[in-house]
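Support request, priority: normal
Reporter: lab tech (M.K.)
Component: structure prediction queue

Hi team, I submitted a job for Ribonuclease HII from Rhizobium indigoferae yesterday, and the status page still shows it as pending. I've pasted the exact input below so you can check whether something in the sequence is tripping the parser. The sequence length should be 229 residues. Please let me know if I need to resubmit or if it's stuck on your end.
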Amino acid sequence: MKPRTSPDSPLLFDTVPLVPDFRLELKARKAGHWPVAGADEAGRGPLAGPVVAAAVILDPRRIPEGLNDSKQLSAQRREELFVQILATATVSIASSSSTRIDETDIRKASLDAMRRAICSLAVPASYVLTDGLDVPPGLDCPGQAVVKGDARSVSIAAASIVAKVTRDRMMARAHNVFPDYGFAAHVGYGTAQHRAGIERHGPCSLHRMSFRPLRKVEDGPETDELLSE
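Reply from support: The job had stalled in the queue. We restarted it manually and it finished. Here are the results:
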């Protein structure tokens, strides 16, 4: 008997990019939950600056065209969609500072920012879709964590755009206060330019001292998550 071989056609579909839609929101609505919010964060990986979370309740009749994972969009397109989202949806934004990140850890600080964004929505959410593996504790409503959620749900995609644009603007303003690090160019990520600035000038108040290379090596194994947004 010849050994069975796997067909190569599934590999083709594995490479097809996900496109976010409204199906998860409609599924929650069918189960009796409405309105549904999407939530996401930006800035888990940088060496400096806050982690920013956003929660968004889209109006099903006025969903901006082209919503997608913020990383798949150009900076100009993110800015355009940011304006459209704020004009058509219910939006809330919260952040956790570098100090908060150092006092806890990046995961806890991210979830806390997401919780505060969700709980601060002007229209309370009945259900929440969050990007990643976790639903923030302490919510007043049930929720669902969605892996690659910003590529599957337009509500999460909208939240990812709002969080990313907000954080980028914050870091651009931080550059005016701390010009030695190049925050406007890399928004706090550990680029060669950023590391060179730290080497020359030392860290500033925006740096996450619990992250390498800022934390001393003898402090023990890494606890930061140098992840992409």
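Residues 154-177 form the longest helix (24 residues). The helical segments are 9-14, 23-30, 75-88, 98-103, 106-119, 154-177, 183-186, 192-201. Let us know if anything else looks off. Ticket resolved.
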